[in-house]
Fold this sequence. Notes:
Layout: E1 2-5, E2 14-20, E3 23-28, E4 38-43, E5 47-50, E6 57-61, E7 68-76, E8 80-85, E9 89-94, E10 98-99, H1 110-114, H2 121-140, H3 145-149, H4 156-166, E11 172-175, H5 183-197, E12 204-208, H6 213-222, E13 234-238, H7 243-250, E14 255-258, H8 261-265, H9 270-282, E15 288-292, H10 301-311, H11 321-338, H12 349-359, H13 364-373, H14 386-403, E16 409-410, E17 424-432, H15 437-454, H16 457-476, H17 481-494, H18 503-512, H19 518-534, E18 540-544, H20 548-561, E19 566-568, H21 582-588, E20 594-597, E21 612-616, H22 623-631, E22 642-649, H23 653-665, H24 677-694, H25 696-706, H26 712-727, H27 740-745, H28 747-761, E23 765-768, E24 782-785, H29 800-806, E25 828-829, H30 832-838, E26 841-842, H31 848-859, E27 865-872, E28 882-892, H32 896-904, H33 910-923, E29 927-934, H34 942-949, E30 962-966, H35 969-978, H36 986-1003, H37 1005-1035, H38 1038-1063, E31 1066-1078
Parallel strand pairs: 11-15, 11-16, 12-13, 12-14, 14-15, 17-22, 18-20, 18-21, 19-20, 21-22, 25-26, 27-31
Antiparallel strand pairs: 1-2, 1-5, 2-3, 3-4, 6-7, 6-10, 7-8, 8-9, 23-24, 27-30, 28-29, 28-31
Helix pairs in contact: 2-28, 4-5, 7-9, 11-26, 13-14, 14-37, 15-16, 15-18, 16-24, 17-18, 23-25, 24-25, 32-38, 37-38
Amino acid sequence: MFCTVNQLESLGRGKIVGWIGPNCLVEFFSEPSEIRRDVKTVSNANIRPCKLGANTRVYHRDEMNGLWWVGRVLEDDGNGATVRFADQNDVYCKHAEIFVRCKRPIEDPSAYLASSITETPQYAEARSRFLSSYIRQRGAAWGISALLSAVIELESHQISVVRRILNDPSQRYLLADEVGLGKTIEAGLVIRQAVLDDPKHHRIIILVPESLRHQWCEELNRRFGLRDFLDDSILVIAQEDPPVEIAAKLAKATMLVVDEAHHVAAEASDRFLQLYDCLQAHAPLIDRLLLLSATPVLRNETGFLRMLHLLDPVMYPLDDEVRFRDKIQHRQVLAESVAMLDPQNALFLDSVLDDLQTKLPCDERLHELIGELRPRLQGIPDESNPDLVESIRLLRAHLSEAYRLHRRILRNRRKRVQLVTPDRAGGTPIKIRETQLANIESSIEAWRIDASAESSGRITDALGQFHWRLLGALLSQPGQLRNLCAERLAALKISPAESFPGEVARLNELASVVDPDAWLEARLDQFADLIPHYLTGRTKLVVFCSDPEVADAVYGRLASGHPSAVVRYTLPSSDEGLETSSSVRFTSQDVVRIIVCDRVAEEGLNLQGGARLIVHFDLPMEPNRIEQRIGRVDRYGAGDPVKSLILLDEGSKYQQHWYTFIASVLGVFDRSISSLQYLVEGELQSLIASVFAEGIDALTALGHRLGGPVGAVATELKLIDQQDALDELMPLAEVDLGDIFDVDADWEDIRRAATCWANDTLLFEQLPEARRASDPPTDPPFRFRYQPPGHGGQATLIALSGFLDNFIGVLDYEHPRSTSLQPLSYPHCARRQTGVRNGSRLIRYGDEFIEALKSFSDMDDRGRSYALWRHARIDYAEAEPKFYFRFDFLVEANLSEAEAALERFQMRTDTACAAMARRGDGLFPPFVDRIWVDEDGFEPSTDFIERFLDLPYDKHGRNPRYVDTNLKSWRLRRLMEAAPDAFANWDLRCVRMRDTAKETLLARTRLADSKRAALARARVEDEVRQAQLLARIQSLTGRESDLERNQLEAEQAISKGLYGGISGPVIKVDVAGVILLSGTPYPLPTTA
Length: 1088
């Protein structure tokens, strides 16, 4: 009886071979040549009996002659199975007479060739092509399987961040890229890699503001193919949820991602304080931790320390804020020098270099880099000289790595990352004709003058806040002024002492001049008339309104004239399909040209790409909200420069002054002001009081103080820029990106290799996807369909049960044509641009279907061993067949010493071991090498191999030069019987030929050159990394210095282990085959 065993599911099927009391003896079969079978004693309670599904591959040993035969199950009755062997030979076998391989990779297919277990060479050709493509992609992607398979554009700055995280045994990082550079993409790649590293046991919690939940789910589904895991093993949780519920979910987490982490770290409310305490308790116990925040450290020292404490509570204790502030202040001196390191300043760099050497006398790496740079500064240096540019880049990179606030802060800046985010093209004010705003402002001003003259103390503060609310309504929805007046009047009836003399009359006067509908009607009429002028070419409009009712009115008016072109954004409900949300329709459907949003869309919405025009239907009093609006479009996924239209009422002086302030002083329509948020928030708090006391003149005075080349805004930006220069990542040099873009561009070969193995050989059906207008004819998306026996057409050569168990995250059960017996995969394509455009999954290393196919191929013997008779009809006269053995070797870094180093430093975890595998692939890209040896152990000439051996299998003789005969098992054995001397000691000869081929491989210059280049690359990288750590240690004291010294010792031990793994790589046989080359046809009958 066959069975699976609880807690041993990874081994697949075993066979019960005996009982001992309450226990079973379960045999796990690996290969025919094994001397001792793996038999485990298992409690009866853990046994789950199972039948063998149709197409299960089984082995049968003929007790008469000891030969092994391979077949596939047709039907299992519970006691035995009907098995189809070669040439339609159906035999009923008892379970005791057949064996099924457990889920262990085949270590050496030479044993199968030695046992004359061979399959058609067509399998070997298709599998080898698939494997070569897979290994090439794996090497180009540095072993990061999430990278090529994610449906994203490949950007070098994001690749740099992801490589750094995933190569680190401890994956605890703060992603601090400036707004719009794609932190979510970087986090998504790390999340996807965590799923691929452990598909069955990961538990990932993503903690986000409620307004971002839908956006995160949409991204994880569309870009990262994680739909099947959402709400199951990947939970996107709102930060607003009760902390006790969040804590329960964190208790089982293997990874935690916190978006907008500065909100959680702020001490702004009791709710966030409770949430922070919850994270503080659980974060140290979670293997992987990513915090996402673009906020600068300046003016946010307390919040920044609280974020770093979650990453590293030992190095950054919360009671050490004074020293933390001092550290930031001391960094400023160094930051000023680093900010000058730019090729444009080449004429003035000598004094900067002198200053750096004075400030950092013990940094040997710094002095070395400065020594290399100085000769390039002699005379009048050419700013565009590549050597000069590279020398400055290396110097900045060293200073950033050695002296950043924390080495696990990863920050990219817009000024260093080109062509990824669109520029801002300024704002254009549109004057709206109206008749009531001047009177309204006069009434508000009259109320303010009386209130400021008569009030004092606490009442002044309350009146100032009410005045600010009046101004806010004036700018965003004047119709609300009546409600504010009514609310104030009602409060005064309860607390008349809070008023000033004559206030009731002033409020009634203000309410009387407000026509609630006139402002909105005037704007709607004139805005609707503007639409045809701006809705031209490819341009799409994003309309922002502060008030939901105003947004509804705007949508209604526009939809009446453009019914199919306008959508209204609302937060999607939990049961709404991601693909049908208004934001996805706006970004993906050409017919949808306008999206109308209210305040809820100012955070968490991605509307970038193509030509976008932002319409500010009103102008909020909070500049950071305007920044957030533009940030919905001005972000990763570049499009055309982003323009803004701002509707301003002709009669409103406050609107005009406020527009001038945010446009000219802050410059929000020309650049991102996200880094100024703390300065702006602080100034606004002061402005509330001053504008109440002084009126509109306070706004003018604030503009004078903040604006200009020496104003507070310019000064703040300079200080932030200098601090950021110490923490930023330098762009990767072209050479550092390796082959990834070249490999990715070779999508046609990748597609052919995958479909040749999956469709042509293993007989998955290829089902074309319904064509969209945007789909290119060169790469039409399609689905893989599993075909069971007896449903028409050829059956897929994988048992259905094994397919369902292993192809996790692959199957789209919601598709109407997908059934339990004929499941469909998600749609796939091969060209990256096609996938990014229509959301199809990419046929790449790391895709769930490709990974499942690779795992199956590692454990299945088809394509691993073959034999053929090749009748050479031209240029070969030898009648006696000559044996030529082929061995394909997979060569990859040996990780055992590096993993031992992890163990020694108590760093060994599954995450750390996976990181070592990626680091090994990055240093020593794996490769497949094919070795041919003749029967005497000599390697044939390259010319001979090309003319007679490395040729496509051709059983029909379409090529006039040769015709092939597949020596499947029974033919090969019959040939052995006919020519016993030629096959003498066949099993030993196969082993000897394998060893000879391996010696040939070891002697090849390719392997030696690969090892030499990898070691050189590793030593250069390690020298730089360790020099930076040493410089960092020298700049620190006490506990921080000790922790970094331990890190340096661990890095040195890991590096030594990797050197050993490169010098002595793992070499595995992937394919073993033999060609009997003869000038005569195959001499025996070809039928059994």
